[in-house]
Amino acid sequence: MRLDILNKLAVAAVCVALAIACNSRSKRASDPAGEPERYSATVVRSVNDGVERELIIARIFRSGDLWRQEWNESYALIWRPDLGKTYELDLARSCYVENETNPQEANLPAGEQAAEATPDIPDLVDGVRGKAGAEAVEQALGDAPSPELIETQQLSNTTVDGYDCEVFERRETFSDNHVVLTTTFRARELGGLAIRVETGPVPGAGGTRLIIKLRDIRLDVPAEAFVVPADFRKVDKLPR
Hints:
By secondary structure, this protein is mainly beta. It has a single domain (5-226), classed as outer membrane lipoprotein receptor (LolB), chain A. It is 10% helix and 42% strand.
């Protein structure tokens, strides 16, 4: 199965704030992005149209500006801004491709840099590079137009998977009066890490909601996660 743009949205949503550009009619409450300097987590993307179903699972690792993403225990991406390199790894065949980091990514937030660096790994990426923010959300929800009004408010704290979370709700109203809600749950003890994000129609309106959540969060990240194994061979292109 090939992964679509929603895989990139899943990574972007938990690596960086869902800071979607607002127009002059927006009303905003503070929704501060945050996350630990070092952590790893399993990213799960689900849809809920009455029944919640898990569709994509990936693993992410962070240590400062270093990032790693893994899919299906078969492919990985290592992003090393300190070396100006990204590495695409075929874990099953013990080979890798080395790429130069795009200089245009230098001014992006770290999570967006990692998403932008995601390669066209065989059978994983459907020809679309990583995108964060409004464009990815709109594509994920079916190429929706820009909203007429954006309102953000902080809700009461709640507990998610044992973590005390601050909750932020973003309401986008479109020209045809339909509304999309994005609810972000940020774990206070994890530096504000978004451990669950729900996006979709308002309750009772029907339709499908996209749910992105983090599982198995760990704060101990081994240094070797960001290094190509010595026994991997360098190739020009990963085999299909």
